[in-house]
Amino acid sequence: MNEYLLKIEHLNKTYNDATPLKDVNLTVNPGEVISVIGPSDTGKSTLLRMINRLENATFGKIYLKIYQSNDICCMKTHQILYALFSGAT
């Protein structure tokens, strides 16, 4: 069984004049450390805002698995994202 922390499937974000995210797929498993890098205006901040539920996707799904343990069960979404994207545990 695959124990992911974050899973993104076919994520798209379209604005009137731009499509910063097109068919993004990503799985982050426990213990993995990832980086989101790229030039300006390529969708990095949009991706993080969508994971944090500050923006809605045009299409696609985001799954954020929350484990019930002493370390994470009471954390808010932004704290989980900090732990996920900073490599903190």
Element layout with pairings:
Layout: E1 6-13, E2 21-28, H1 44-51, E3 59-64, H2 77-86
Antiparallel strand pairs: 1-2, 1-3
Structural notes for this entry:
Helix content is 20%, strand content 25%. By secondary structure, it is of the alpha+beta class. The protein has one domain: 3-Layer(aba) Sandwich (Rossmann fold), CATH 3.40.50.300. It has a three-stranded antiparallel β-sheet, with helices on one face. A hairpin with a 7-residue loop joins strand 1 and strand 2. The radius of gyration is 14 Å and the shape is globular. The chain starts with 5 loop residues before the first strand and ends with a helix.
Class derived from helix and strand content: alpha+beta
Query: How would you write the strand order of the largest sheet?
Result: 2-1-3
CATH fold call: Rossmann fold
The CATH homologous superfamily is termed P-loop containing nucleotide triphosphate hydrolases
* Overall average residue pLDDT: 79
How big is the Rg? 14 Å
CATH architecture label name: 3-Layer(aba) Sandwich
Strand content: 15-25%
